[in-house]
From TrEMBL:
AMP binds at residues 31, 36, 57-59, 85-88, 92, 161, 172. GO terms for biological process: AMP salvage. PROSITE patterns: ADENYLATE_KINASE. This is Adenylate kinase. Monomer. Residues 30-59 are annotated as: NMP. It comes from Streptomyces auratus AGR0001.
Length: 217
């Protein structure tokens, strides 16, 4: 299956993607995680991305689209993927369509996680991620690691993301409304959107998502 995951910052995309990718046996491709890995390795791409991310803005398409396509290539897009955080504006959605068309592929579904804004603010405020791998995600209250400050998956140190400060979060939400939400209508026109409420326990949301994908795709 080829799936795009959308939803506001803090909706639980990364958290759900880890379970859905495992259940569906497809790779989880997160552009946010790819940027954070480049930042921690100090690559030129990471240096460029960091200034945009810290300000809560999107990294330019000229950088992002090539990086996402390289990763899909590496994963063998024909075997399926779960895209998390890409596409994030209409230009990226059109570029993805073009990439898929050139490879004789199509999307199966766009899974839209619906969460009220006051809840995403709480989720982001308590989020802690792993120094070794930013896809290892926890919450100080809702999704506690077994030992405080330590990643359950790899034993790495947990910390708060630089762009999770309150003023940056406000900017990221604004960017989501102006730049990313329009792609939901773009995909509705292609009859691909499956919307699920993403409130409740992590495993309840995963079940809802799996049921919706099986119904909708
Ligand atoms: P990115 O890393 O993609 O961030 P985001 O979209 O803002 O999403 P988040 O990672 O904040 O949240 P999430 O939905 O994954 O939630 P999570 O599972 O962590 O992007 C960061 C930046 O990179 C962007 O601002 C941009 O600058 C750049 N970038 C990335 N992609 C780009 C692109 N395509 N183009 C241009 N720029 C790009 O969950 C949040 C918290 O809630 C966690 O603590 C979790 O434990 C908790 N939680 C999860 N589910 C539940 C639940 N059901 N109940 C209670 N708590 C829960
Ligand atoms: Zn870890």
């Amino acid at each position: 299956m080829r799936i795009v995951l959308v939803g506001p910052p803090g909706a639980g995309k990364g958290t759900q993607a880890a379970y859905l990718a495992k259940n569906l046996a497809i790779p989880h491709i997160s552009t946010g995680d790819l940027f954070r890995a480049n930042i921690s390795q100090g690559t030129p791409l990471g240096v460029e991305a960091k200034s945009y991310m810290d300000a809560g803005n999107l990294v330019p398409d000229s950088v992002t689209i090539g990086m996402a396509e390289d990763r899909m290539e590496q994963a063998d897009a024909a075997e399926g993927f779960l895209l998390d955080g890409f596409p994030r504006n209409l230009g990226q959605a059109e570029a993805l369509d073009e990439y898929l068309k050139n490879n004789g592929l199509t999307l199966d579904a766009v899974l839209d996680l619906e969460v009220p804004e006051e809840e995403v603010v709480k989720r982001i405020a308590g989020r802690r991620i792993c120094r070794n791998d930013s896809s290892h995600v926890f919450h100080a209250e809702y999704n506690k690691p077994k030992a405080e400050g330590v990643c359950d998956v790899c034993g790495g140190e947990l910390y708060q993301r630089d762009d999770d400060r309150e003023e940056t979060v406000r900017k990221r939400l604004e960017v989501y409304h102006t730049e990313t939400e329009p792609i939901i209508d773009y995909y509705k026109d292609q009859d691909l959107v499956v919307t699920i409420p993403a409130l409740g326990k992590v495993e309840e949301v995963t079940k809802r998502a799996m049921d919706a994908l099986q119904r909708g795709a």
